[in-house]
């Protein structure tokens, strides 16, 4: 009976650890206001992670506008233990919805090394994908 209880406790511990979802948040930061449809080249926003996925050493960030096919770009960041990725790690084309609000999504692709970007815009060897979205302007 003791062994059954021990097994249940171990399984519960593993399940609760795996159930903890890693989260990604960001703040647009101090970027120029833009509504002309012609984006500015700016530094990345500050990204906040709740944890770093196991085995990840690099992350590739990519910005998508849900209302426009415009490619805003993104960039690679080498990870350390810090869960806060400061602005200035890469440049991208800022959000700039013509005449209104658009919803934008940052996608973070975690890898064990800096890899090539495939035809689909995703790096090879992805360990984990996280997404966070906001409207601009807020």
What does this structure look like?
With 138 residues, the chain is mainly beta. The protein has one domain: Phosphatidylethanolamine-binding Protein (Alpha-Beta Complex). 13% of the residues lie in helices and 38% in strands. It is built from one helix and nine strands. It has a four-stranded antiparallel β-sheet, with no helix packed on it. The longest helix has 18 residues. The N terminus is likely disordered.
Largest beta sheet: what is the strand line-up?
A: 5-4-8-9
Number of helices: 1
CATH homologous superfamily placement: PEBP-like
Give the terminus-to-terminus CA distance: 57 Å
CATH architecture: Alpha-Beta Complex
Provide the gyration radius in Å. Answer: 18 Å
User: Would you report the number of β strands?
Assistant: 9
Count of all domains: 1
Fraction of residues in helices?
10-25%
Structural class: mainly beta
General shape? globular
Largest sheet: 4 strands, antiparallel
Q: Under the CATH scheme, which class?
A: Alpha Beta
- The low-pLDDT segments are 3-19
> Could you state the order of secondary-structure elements as H and E?
HEEEEEEEEE
Using the coordinates shown, work out and report the CATH topology. Phosphatidylethanolamine-binding Protein
Strand content: 35-45%
Task: Show the helix and strand layout.
Elements: H1 2-19, E1 24-27, E2 41-43, E3 46-49, E4 58-65, E5 71-78, E6 84-85, E7 91-93, E8 102-111, E9 126-136
Give a concise summary.
By secondary structure, this protein is mainly beta. The chain has one helix and nine strands; from the N terminus they run αβββββββββ.
């Amino acid at each position: 009976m003791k062994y059954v209880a021990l097994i249940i406790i171990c399984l519960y511990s593993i399940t609760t650890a795996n159930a903890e979802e890693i989260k990604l948040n960001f703040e647009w930061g101090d970027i120029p206001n833009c509504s002309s449809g012609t984006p500015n080249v700016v530094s990345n926003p500050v990204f906040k992670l709740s944890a770093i996925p196991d085995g990840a050493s690099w992350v590739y960030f990519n910005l998508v506008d849900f209302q426009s096919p415009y490619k805003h770009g993104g960039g690679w960041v080498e990870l350390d233990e810090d869960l806060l990725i400061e602005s200035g790690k890469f440049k991208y084309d800022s959000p700039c919805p013509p005449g209104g609000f658009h919803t934008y999504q940052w996608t973070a692709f975690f890898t064990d090394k800096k890899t090539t970007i495939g035809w689909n815009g995703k790096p090879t060897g992805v360990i984990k994908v996280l997404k966070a979205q906001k409207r601009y302007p807020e």
